[in-house]
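Lecture 7 notes: from sequence to structure.

We start with a single chain of 336 residues. Read the sequence below before looking at the structure.
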Amino acid sequence: MQTLQGIQYLRAVAALAVVLFHAAERSGVNFAIGAAGVDVFFVISGFIMAVISHRRPQTAGAFLKDRFLRIAPVYWIVTSVMIFGAAAGFFPNLVLDPLHVLGSYLFLPVPSPNSGALWPVLVQGWTLNYEMFFYGSFAVTLLFPQRVRLALLALAFIGLVLAAGLMPAPPLWLNFYGTPLILEFLAGVCLGRLWLRGRIPGAETGFGLIVAATLGFATIFILNLPFGTWICGPLALIAVIGILSLEREQTLPNLPLLSYLGDASFSIYLWHTLAISVVVKFGALVGLDGWLLAWTAGIAGSVLGVFAYEAIERPFQHLLKHGRLSFRLPHRQTAK
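Now the structure, written as tokens:
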């Protein structure tokens, strides 16, 4: 399966948006819309799983193993850095609790002793709790015939959202997993089915969809409008449809840097807050503030993520695939 460059571009943009969101938040300026990068990631995740499972059929166990090895080891490394750093006094505001730490390693939503929120030790890892839940649910559907898999996934996810919304006081686990966010995975799976059947609009329509999504996100940012899943989910979906439309007709430009950042997007997402914290503290000492501090911190976070990709993620994935470490730049192109 050849890499879809448009998906790589979107992964890069989504990761950088989240980085700038966190950098701006720590710098006292507003780029809240950057959090919508998560919505884009969830739609892309559903799309990729649908396409991969069709073109490279696997058993449920093999699928879960591949997904686990793709996500867990690198995430555990970052989580461990946070834990050891807190124990050593580098993160004085980070309170450690054994149950919370265990939940963080197991991708389970456990209330944080720092805020009470259902965040793991590495705060942005909350999205991976949803990713792993989606992978587990998707793996269950692989136990059934192809013709009923999408219907089963839709029934489960829509049922969870309805149950959480209609129940007066849903239990903690239902309140977490019943969020409308999980419907973005479902939307991505549906889009994957349409892609496989060749039912993606043409390039002109796709370009219009990209413009519409961009204007939607920009309007929210410029006017400082409230937003949530029911707004950002559809915008993320039409952005992915638009990119796939251009991909199908091979009208996308060749953007090697953006493609590379797409490869590194997972490491950028995991590691960026460590660099942001350091830069924000240093920036406060030298008098940087506002957008200058936000951009500086964002660039530092992205650079750390790229370094972690080259030094940790890519060699480790090469080890899993080939049985040996490699620190050489890879020859493209194979799909993630």
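Residues 207 and 242 are 6 Å apart (CA to CA). Keep this in mind for problem set 3.
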